[in-house]
Structures are given as C-alpha cells and as structure tokens.
C-alpha cells in the first residue's frame, strides 16, 4: 500500500479517501519494509515482462505453437494481488500472468511448461497441457478428488478463452460469500470464514461489449455481492478501436447509471485509474477491497491507458493497426517505465536524512537478475518437456530397430524419423503404428514386444489427453448406489409436483449446503409449485428468486459449486436453456477436463420441458445439449418420482447434471415413496417398463407415456413390443441392456420428440455401433421423431408435430407389414 505520513521511521496509511464513515484500516510499516515491498513489486513486474518477451521468442522460433501474454498490465495486477487474500477467488481471462506470479499461482517454470503444453500436472498444474498459455488455475482438489482447504490458499478458477465467458461464474463465486454468512455445515470452514472472501474478475475492455458482462454486472448490483471487476482498457479489441466496440468509448461513462446512490443497497462503485500510476493503483484497489470485503458492494475498476508492448498475440503485429503516435505514446507510458521513474524520483526525509527507494544501478541489477531468472526457468522447463519426449523415443526406437529386417519399408520410416529436427510424441507414435501396420502378418517376439509397449504407452497418453471428462473420484455419479423407492399401504397417491416438492423438502433438511434459485423459484415456489412453501421454511438465501437472466443463473451455480456449496440452478423451461448453452459447453462441461481433475463444479441444472404447447414451451433441443455438453450428466426422467430420485443421486455425486422434469407430469397422479430424500435412481441405467418379444421400442421423458400407449395398441394387433425408458442419456446404458433386448426381438425403433437426426441419431450410434446391436437386426432400424419445427400453439399442435401414439402404431406396424403382408395387411 502507499503510505502518506512519516513519523519516526514509521509510515502510516490512514484515510485514503474522503467518504463519511469509510476508512481503510491503519497500517504501520518501517521505511525499509516499505522499500522492500516496492522493489519486490518492481522485481515481479520485470520478471513477468521478461516472461512475455521470451515467451514470444519461443513461439516465433518454433518451440511453442501460440503465445498470448500480459505485458503492459503488470502494475494493476500487482496492485490487485496486494488485496487478494487466502480464500479469495479470481475468475479472469488470459492476460493475468503478473497477478498469478504475484500470488504464487504460477512460476517461471510452470509458465513455460504451459507454453510448451507439457502434460505433467506437477510441472503444469493449471491444466496439464490442455489449455493454451495464459489460462491459469489453482488446484482445488486433492489427488483423490476431495476438496482441499480453500481457505489456506489463494484461488483461481480455471480460465476459459471466450473473453466474457468467465463473468457468469464470477457472480457465483462472489455470491457464495454472501451465502456463507448465514449457511454453515460440516466442513464449511474449508470454503469460507463468515463469508468475508472477495471474488475478483478481470476482463478486456473490448469484451465489455459482450452480453455476459452486462448480465453479470446487473445481477451483482442487484444481489450486492462482494465482487471486484477489473477492466483492462488498452483502447482496442485486437485491431478494432474502442469507439467501434460500444455506444461510448469510455466504459466508465456507460456504467455511470450503475453507480450506487448513498444509502441504497443497489448498484456498484466505479473507480477509474491509469495503468501506469502505481500509487493511484494501490489506492484504487485498497478502496475497492474495502467496499467489497466489508460492505459487500460490487466494484468496477476501470484501468485506463493500458499498453500492449508486443501487441495482441504471436498471431500478428500491432504495428499493422496502431498509428505511429499511438505506438510512441505506448512506449513512453509503459507501466514499468513509469514505475521505474517513480521509484527513482521518490525521496523522503526521515530524522534529517534523505531516504530513497533505489538507484539506477540497483534497478539495472534487478532488470538483469529478472532476465537471468526467466531464462534459467525457461531452460529448465524446456529440458523437462524434452526429456519426456526423449524418454519416449528411447523406449520405442530400439524396439522398432529390432524388427526393421521384417519389412524393408521400416528402414525408410526410421531414416525419415531420424531426420525430424524437433521430435514430438505424435512422431513417435506414428512411427510405432506404421511399423505395426507394415508387420501385421508377422508374429515375432520382437513385434509382440513393440505391440505391448505401444499399448502401455497409449494408455498413458490417453490419460494425459483424455482423462477426467467426468469425475474419477469415489463420488462419481456412476458409483452412487441404487436405493429403490419404498411403497406401502400408507403411500399416498398425489400429484407429481407434490412428490418432487416433498423430496426437495427432505433434501434441504438433509443437506444444509444445498440451495435452489431461479425465476419464480422462491416466493411462489416455482411456476409448477415444485418448491411450494419451501422459501418460508428455509429462507430466501437457500430458496431464492432471480431475475430473468439464464446465463448468470447458470453462472451462480458454477461459482457456488466451485466453493463447496450444492446449488440447484433452475432454468424455467428447457427451451430457455439455450441461453445457458455457452456456459454449459465452454465452462461447466470442461471444468474437470481442463484442469485434469484439479477443480470441480457439481451444480445441478433443474429444468422442465418436452410436450406441451407453444413454440417456446414445447421444444426438445436435446441433441444440441448432448453434443455440446459432454462432461455433464444429462438425465431425462419420465416421472416426477424418477426426477426426485435423480436429485437424490446427484447430491451424493461430485459431478454436474441437467435434470429435465416432464412438463406434463406435475398434475398426473403418482404414488409417493415412503423414503423421500433417500431413494436414488442410478445414472447410466435403462429400465424395461414393458416386456415384449417382437420389437424393441426405445424412448425417454414425456414420450414414454405415448410409447407405452402405442405398445398396448400394438399388442391388440398381434405385435409384442418391449418398451425401454433410457432415463439417462449421458451416461448411456452402461450395462448394454438395450442390445440384449434387440438380440431377443431382432427389431429396433427409437422414438424421440427431438427433430429428425437429433437425439435419435445419438441413440442409434450408441446402440448399433457401441453396443454392436446391428448384428441382431432382421429389419432396418427405425427412428420416429418430431417434425423439423417447434410445435404450433394451435389446438392439436402437439399431435401433428411430435410422435403420437397413432404415428408409432402405424410406423411399427408397417415394419411387420413389410415382413409378412398377409398377416399384417396394409393400413392405407
């Protein structure tokens, strides 16, 4: 911090800004400690800059594929690090290397290990080579997938490349602190100390044009959460000037309406500061921390006059779009140059002696040390990375050499391989695979040794590149044991909504860390009364209403789940989940994968959909969800009892899930289990709901009722249909029971209310290709899907748009008509 008063070798930071009843806690520090702190900041800034310089050279000389760096942003990030405490979280983007360096979340070696895409978690703990450089993360989990004590470390939620995609998650990280002010549970001390943590966000100025930025800031201002957003404003979005990005070039001016009024619990504080002004930056961040940490007020810090000494990235040169005047100004107002000038100009008299912070020679020495430190770290990272490949080569090449006499072309392969200047893992594996292909007719001990080594190494690389899409801990969803619902003579027949409501009641009683939020979820207990009366019982922190803002409802869930809570994020209708799809796909679905098991976000997305009325209340965009959300469990229960069981299952798991309740099931009668809150439905398991011998009918969700009706009609026509409810689209039928059904019936029909080639294509691929059920078919597989448009609201729109019982009966009957026209004469 910057100190404004000297007294007997003690510097005091007193009132930093003039605002009634708002003070920064007085700090006391000797001049020598003050000097040491300043010079350490300068040292870190120089190290970070040298990392940027050398990183770019490593890309341009071919050692790395791409580079994007944080040069020019060193000073504001050093200031941010000063107020960042254990337990705090950052949700940012790929320019924050100085901040990561300052909080010990990255080292010179790990920075370059990520640049080289080293797959070692030990050397590259942020992503184990799965992310481009500049994407930072701390490890929230132990090796077994259990939570670390997040209060004992400074935390970075794993970065993503979409440049405003980090914003919705930031809202949840901040809101968790507010929740923890009133919510306690066994182990909550690992995640919060009375909710005093702050969530810090960073975003480039141009990305404030994105909707996610505005939606997040709006929600934060409404919720009053402890959040500090830093906007790095360098005047451009890659090559496009700021004035072409937004309605006004000055984002602070645009945000002026968000500025809170005195005495109101709405809005935020807005602070503008220059990126090269070290004392002002320290003051700005101290002020922002006070507002956020002690008053739970969101703060925007607009950092202006940021420079980018090397341009946007290694993909191009900023000289192409910046004027000579702009480039000259950037050279003059480089933050580190200005910081150096400030240090050299600083002097103060203490007890008659003039004290200075540093001489030119001392700063030159720091510059030289920084350059050497970075070069040494880069060299060590490169050697470690290369050793992985050279060890691989050493294991494989002798085995290939041992069988070169078995095929003359292998000699040419080896010669070509040996000419490669920079060998990669790919080169080694291609050599082995081509060798095995050329010797496929051989059966020698040498070839068998190579084959065995290949299988061993492939398993390692599969883990390096493809593990942890889902949890690999003891709490993974597929490990949760099935507990069947218990029914007795006293079990009531109630509306489906009552089953799910009463089950939620048990959940919120059993899991104090659980909470639900969404549009109309709180006061009225959701639009279908599945949460009726629960806000009154559990309070508006745990059963909460939100604004109409689906992307940040999801973001609330992701952020809170990353901090140990068990959020249920409610999206009112399945059609509206499309607002969330970017966050589901880019962020939630990839959390475990992109950190190689270092972080998790077990949020449950509750929604409802399928067959009803209207273009936007009856859609079933399941194929889009399936294809874009691998990494999330996609669960499609046919009833509200099944839905309740899935909630009970997933709350014991550490994986995220989407649970789609059937919109037309809330008023249908179901028998309520006696063991509410306890029974579970296993994920990845189908259910045969009607046995048959002639044809297998596969479906899920609301369509199951229609298929069951059709199957009963088919029985009257002499066709015995087996009905299978998929229940869980991801994971899909892990026991491969559908193939066993097809083996018995020799015919397969998939009925789906998604569009043609939608979810039905996925289901067919799983059954025919993965389960190899094509071997048992006597007829072509048949899909019965919806029309390629949303159903009209007009009366009977559902009947004419989605598979009806009549459609299913007729199309299945036609299969048998083609088989035996005499026994099954044509209908039309």
From TrEMBL:
Coiled coil: none
Keyword Transmembrane helix: no
SMART domains, A to Z: Transket_pyr
Domain of life: Bacteria
Keywords from the UniProt entry: Oxidoreductase, Pyruvate, Thiamine pyrophosphate
Transketolase-like pyrimidine-binding domain residues: 494-668
MF terms (GO), sorted A to Z: oxidoreductase activity, acting on the aldehyde or oxo group of donors, disulfide as acceptor
UniProt-listed CDD domains: TPP_E1_PDC_ADC_BCADC
Cofactor(s) required, per the database record: thiamine diphosphate
The UniProt record lists the keyword Oxidoreductase: yes
Function summary: E1 component of the 2-oxoglutarate dehydrogenase (OGDH) complex which catalyzes the decarboxylation of 2-oxoglutarate, the first step in the conversion of 2-oxoglutarate to succinyl-CoA and CO(2).
Name of the featured protein: Pyruvate/2-oxoglutarate/acetoin dehydrogenase complex, dehydrogenase (E1) component
Organism: Epilithonimonas zeae
